[in-house]
Amino acid sequence: METVLLKCPECGQINRVVKAKFHLHPKCHSCKKVLTYPKTPLTVTGANFNEEVVQSPGIVLLDLWSPTCGYCMKLNPILDEIASEYAGIIKVGKINTQNDQVLTGQFNIRGVPALFLYNDGKKIGEVAGFMPKNDLVSWIKSRIDL
Ligand SMILES: [Zn+2]
Question: Could you list the residue range(s) of the whole structural domain that residue 31 is in?
Answer without folding.
Answer: 1-36
